[in-house]
Write a structure and sequence with these properties.
Strand content: 5-15%
Radius of gyration: 27 Å
Oligomer: single chain
Distance between the termini: 23 Å
Order of helices and strands: HEEEEHEEHEHEHEEHHEHHEHEHHHHEE
Number of helices: 14
Largest sheet: 7 strands, mixed, barrel
């Protein structure tokens, strides 16, 4: 049971791209001008695409206040002006309501921490004021450069329709999924060969999870519970999740490299520790994996280069996840992928009807609510090459959630194991499902580019992979066997050896 809950925590990392945008604050005075980075939520704060189309506002500096009460307003009011206040003590919506009541047309919220996307505002309350976050150090720079005579314009240059980082994301996703599926099938073939040679198939490894229908339900319910807890207690639980990712990624890198280290002829000497024998080479491998994970934890907010290490850890995380979680039948694949698709759709599209600010729970958790500046390590990140605000706001990234590789990857891994069980030398199920995943990813990216909005990738990946796998099984007249699944009993931890039948290796199915 504990392994299922841990897996639920890890599988929580599904792809959600927040409807966020970085924009430009053009500030100027009598004899100088400058530009600064701002962050806003484009779903409820539309900004003009160019400086020429932007409205000019006189900026009132109220950074001595957090503007959580009417008494914080200046006596002269803010009619037709923009105001900058400090972050904290109350929500962005409350600050915006108070500023708007005084006639303000725009509110800038100064943050001493990293800029995070403002959560959605309930437009039913009549809010039509522009809201954006700005760095506090930039406010100080404006104050020093322009004194008390500051005018501002806010605008959001449109990003290029296509960025080459999308192709890198596509390659990473297909490569990781194909490699994970191949590894799962190769491990299955190794165990079958051992059984054919007179051995006995190993009992379930201590780090493996064999899914049953009950475990699938517990798995998905665990993900729902963890997501809701993160929604309410994010500023504390985010550090728990970061610590868990560090541990899981270190174990994943170790699991991926252990097979390679096994082939190294040197370092076979060992030492004893608490009645256990440890080889020197694996000791140093464990130390290396821990060091890499700690390095990421220390520099996780250094965007310029840490994304490379995070992607490497993410690839290892996904590969190890596909190795550890084993699905025993297509029936369970359909159940798991369908429930996760419903989970994704519910928490993205349905929960806005229940939240106070009209924003989905998953979007708010992915955006990193609160002032911690920390975000969940949930995604593969590749820098965008054509960001119009990169020179001001720093690097922008194309994102792909781990779950959009892991969830379809479990089906691909099952398909490869089924090929092994049936001696399919062409690997027809594995290859077909992998190609279907690639097609699903291309469809996802095309829709994302055309709609200019992030997409829940499972909405496209789940139908593509499930339908393709079912069609292959139906065309080969193997649907009954493909649906029933594993040739080994999974009702307990023991596995029966292969039974030879007509030259093909089959096992006992209950």
């Amino acid at each position: 049971m504990s392994k299922i809950l841990v897996a639920s925590v890890c599988a929580l990392f599904l792809c959600v791209q927040v409807n966020a945008q970085e924009a430009i604050l053009h500030a100027f005075g009598p004899s100088a001008e400058n530009e600064y980075c701002i962050v806003f939520n484009s779903s409820w704060t539309p900004l003009p695409p160019s400086l020429d189309n932007a409205t000019q506002y006189q900026l009132v500096n109220l950074t001595s206040s957090v503007l959580c009460h009417q008494t914080d307003l200046p006596p002269a009011g803010l009619n037709g002006k923009a105001v900058v206040v400090m972050r904290g003590n109350c929500s962005f919506e409350e600050k915006a309501l108070i500023a708007q009541s005084s006639g303000a047309r725009a509110i800038l919220i100064a943050s001493k921490t990293s800029l995070t996307t403002p959560s959605a505002i309930n437009t039913d309350k009549g809010l039509n004021i522009l809201v954006a976050l700005v760095r506090y150090k930039d406010v100080l720079n404006m104050q020093e450069a322009f004194k008390d005579s500051i005018s501002v314009k806010l605008y959001a240059p449109p990003a290029a329709l296509f960025d080459y980082s999308i192709l890198v994301i596509l390659f990473i996703s297909v490569f990781t999924l194909a490699l994970g599926g191949y590894w799962s099938g190769a491990a299955e073939q190794q165990e079958i060969n051992f059984a054919v040679q007179g051995g006995r198939r190993k009992a379930e490894s201590s780090d493996e999870i064999q899914f049953t229908p009950l475990k699938v339900v517990i798995f998905v319910l665990g993900m729902c519970g963890i997501l809701v807890l993160l929604y309410f207690f994010y500023k504390w639980l985010v550090y728990v999740m970061i610590a868990m990712f560090c541990i899981a990624s270190a174990m994943a890198v170790y699991g991926c490299l252990a097979a390679l280290v096994q082939m190294i002829p040197c370092g076979r000497c060992s030492f004893s520790f608490q009645d256990k024998t440890v080889e020197i080479r694996f000791f140093f491998l464990a130390a290396f994996c821990i060091a890499v994970s700690v390095l990421w934890a220390v520099y996780r907010n250094e965007d310029r280069w840490i994304w490379i290490l995070q992607d490497v850890l993410g690839i290892a995380f996904c590969l190890n996840f596909m190795r550890v979680l084993k699905i025993s039948s297509f029936k369970i694949c359909v159940t798991l992928l369908s429930l996760l698709l419903v989970y994704d759709v519910f928490f993205v599209f349905i929960t806005p009807f229940f939240t106070k600010n009209g924003e989905s729970i998953m979007v708010q958790v992915a955006a990193g609510p609160g002032a911690t500046g920390e975000k969940l390590p949930i995604v593969m990140r590749v820098p965008r090459l054509s960001s119009p605000t990169q020179y001001l706001c720093g690097m922008e990234f194309s994102l792909l959630g781990y779950g959009d590789i892991i969830v379809p990857g479990l089906l691909v891994a099952y398909c490869h194991r089924f090929d092994v069980w049936n001696n399919n030398s062409t690997k027809i199920y594995y290859i077909s499902c992998t190609i279907a995943y690639g097609v699903g990813m291309i469809v996802t990216l095309v829709v994302m580019v055309l709609s200019k909005m992030g997409q829940p990738a499972l909405l496209y990946l789940v139908p593509c992979t499930l339908v393709t796998s079912a069609l292959v099984a139906w065309r080969r007249k193997e649907m009954k066997r493909f649906w029933a699944g594993t040739i080994y009993e999974v009702l307990d931890s023991s596995k029966e050896p292969l039974i030879q039948d007509g030259g093909k290796s089959y096992g006992h199915i209950q």
